[in-house]
């Protein structure tokens, strides 16, 4: 499946024709809002006039829109050289044999990091390792199922990380439901997997890497989050809860270690073409993993569409969706929409399953 044809590029971002109307509205809004803001500020008593409250809100939201546009299109991220790129340092990536994790491992290798790969399938690890070694950097591989990690395996991971200088940790491993379902329908096995993989593995990996990062007063930790923590997700309640944990753990830790030179980023992602999302065809809202990861690594430390501290939504379409959803749409309205969306996905999944059984 080929990606949509790129109409034009701006920095690391490529825009397809279906992006043009939304981009045009954004830029037009910025232009009009700036006109209103600057013209009103020149009028005597502007900030004190009751009649100008509407213009004040226009100016306020325009300022937010300008900040968003600057973050997405102009503002550079923290350079990866700060964390040891091309200096013999290592990046550790969990869940790295498919989708975002695989592309992150490859892109970090292209940026000059050696890569420690941790994932479940030994065969897939070997395949990704071969691709990375062809780039010209070193790899180490550890095969582990994060839903049931033994003490011996945690010791192996710790020893592997302690033996190298880790500049970047990307906690990417994660699972979701097979399809949206009521919470009582979710199996105990799935619930345990969600807790162990989405939460405990992230905390354990972070605890293992922090001592050496604190000693050097430098390091980057990226925790893969989800829009399921931006807005509660009916029919994905346990998954949404685990991603809420990722969000608040990341933000709390980021504040905790900021003064020690360590950057912790909660990466909040909407749909991307991947095995986990089951999205195969790229679109304006659902990019391929490769351009998405390129944008992520080019925008470290940049909030993009997020209003949350230490949280990044750097990809244009995702950022715009979050900007509108967080700032312009009432929470209950957005939640009702989410209910209808996921309820519809559930019905389609059940219909497909029933059809398969009948055949």
UniProtKB/TrEMBL annotation:
<keyword id="KW-1133">Transmembrane helix</keyword>
<keyword id="KW-0276">Fatty acid metabolism</keyword>
<keyword id="KW-0472">Membrane</keyword>
<keyword id="KW-0444">Lipid biosynthesis</keyword>
<keyword id="KW-0275">Fatty acid biosynthesis</keyword>
<dbReference type="InterPro" id="IPR020904">
    <property type="entry name" value="Sc_DH/Rdtase_CS"/>
</dbReference>
<dbReference type="InterPro" id="IPR002347">
    <property type="entry name" value="SDR_fam"/>
</dbReference>
<protein>
    <recommendedName>
        <fullName>Very-long-chain 3-oxoacyl-CoA reductase</fullName>
    </recommendedName>
</protein>
<dbReference type="Pfam" id="PF00106">
    <property type="entry name" value="adh_short"/>
</dbReference>
<keyword id="KW-0443">Lipid metabolism</keyword>
<comment type="similarity">
    <text>Belongs to the short-chain dehydrogenases/reductases (SDR) family.</text>
</comment>
<comment type="pathway">
    <text>Lipid metabolism; fatty acid biosynthesis.</text>
</comment>
<dbReference type="GO" id="GO:0005783">
    <property type="term" value="C:endoplasmic reticulum"/>
</dbReference>
<dbReference type="GO" id="GO:0016491">
    <property type="term" value="F:oxidoreductase activity"/>
</dbReference>
<feature type="transmembrane region" description="Helical">
    <location>
        <begin position="220"/>
        <end position="239"/>
    </location>
</feature>
<keyword id="KW-0812">Transmembrane</keyword>
<feature type="transmembrane region" description="Helical">
    <location>
        <begin position="20"/>
        <end position="38"/>
    </location>
</feature>
<dbReference type="GO" id="GO:0030497">
    <property type="term" value="P:fatty acid elongation"/>
</dbReference>
<dbReference type="InterPro" id="IPR036291">
    <property type="entry name" value="NAD(P)-bd_dom_sf"/>
</dbReference>
<feature type="transmembrane region" description="Helical">
    <location>
        <begin position="58"/>
        <end position="78"/>
    </location>
</feature>
<keyword id="KW-0560">Oxidoreductase</keyword>
<keyword id="KW-0521">NADP</keyword>
């Amino acid at each position: 499946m080929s990606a949509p044809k790129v109409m034009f590029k701006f920095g690391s971002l490529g825009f397809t024709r279906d992006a043009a109307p939304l981009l045009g509205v954004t830029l037009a809004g910025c232009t009009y809002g700036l006109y209103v803001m600057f013209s009103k500020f020149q009028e005597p008593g502007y900030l004190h006039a009751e009649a100008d409250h509407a213009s004040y809100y226009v100016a306020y939201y325009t300022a937010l829109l300008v900040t968003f546009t600057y973050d997405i299109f102009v503002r550079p991220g923290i350079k990866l050289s700060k964390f040891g790129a091309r200096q013999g340092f290592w990046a550790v990536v969990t869940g790295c044999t498919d989708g975002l994790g695989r592309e992150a491992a490859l892109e970090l290798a292209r940026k000059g990091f050696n890569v420690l790969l941790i994932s479940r399938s030994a065969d897939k690890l070997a395949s990704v390792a071969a691709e990375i070694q062809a780039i010209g950097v070193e790899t180490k591989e550890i095969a582990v199922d994060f839903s049931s990690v033994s003490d011996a395996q945690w010791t192996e991971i710790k020893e592997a990380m302690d033996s190298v200088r880790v500049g970047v940790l990307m906690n990417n491993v994660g699972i979701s439901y097979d399809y949206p379902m009521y919470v009582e329908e979710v199996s105990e096995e799935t619930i345990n997997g969600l807790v162990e993989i989405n939460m405990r593995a992230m905390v354990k990996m972070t605890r293992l890497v922090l001592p050496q990062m604190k000693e050097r007063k430098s390091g980057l930790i990226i925790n893969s989050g989800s829009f399921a923590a931006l807005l509660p997700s009916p029919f994905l309640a346990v998954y949404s809860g685990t991603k809420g944990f990722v969000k608040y753990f990341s933000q709390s830790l980021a504040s905790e270690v900021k003064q020690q030179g360590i950057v912790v980023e909660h990466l909040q992602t909407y749909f991307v073409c991947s095995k986990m999302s089951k999205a195969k065809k790229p679109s304006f809202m659902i990019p391929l993993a490769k351009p998405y990861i390129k944008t992520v690594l080019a925008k470290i430390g940049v909030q993009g569409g997020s209003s949350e501290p230490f949280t990044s939504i750097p990809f244009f379409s995702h950022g715009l969706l979050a900007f509108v959803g967080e700032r312009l749409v009432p929470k209950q309205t957005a939640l009702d929409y989410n209910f209808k969306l996921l309820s519809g996905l559930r019905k389609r999944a059940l219909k497909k399953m029933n059809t398969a059984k009948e055949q």
